[in-house]
User: What shape does this take?
Amino acid sequence: MMTAKPVILAVCAAALVLSACGKPGERVRFNGNYYPADLKKVGDRRETFVVTVRDPGQGIEGAREAGRFEATRYCVETFGDSTVNWQPGYDPDANASVIDNGRLVLRGSCVLW
Assistant: This one.
């Protein structure tokens, strides 16, 4: 019986591979919209980060997915694991919607194994 973690990791890896195969300039879309997302590490700890997603007014669900995707990609590329621990109030899985200056803000950390 497969657990959720390997399945999620496989899906994220496939999404990364497929997104890398596109033509230069193609953008990953969520719910049909493009949401520019930026991820920055917090302090000296590479595993702790903040993601900001622009244009959440296009649809908050798509903005959450764009932020989750950016965080997952970062954790996989940096630490080899897709698991993210979201800070309370910033969890896209719990429908968190912290909007600051017109941007969705998500905070979390990659799980180190």
Remarks:
- The longest strand covers residues 45-54.
- Residues 17-24 have pLDDT under 50 and may be disordered.
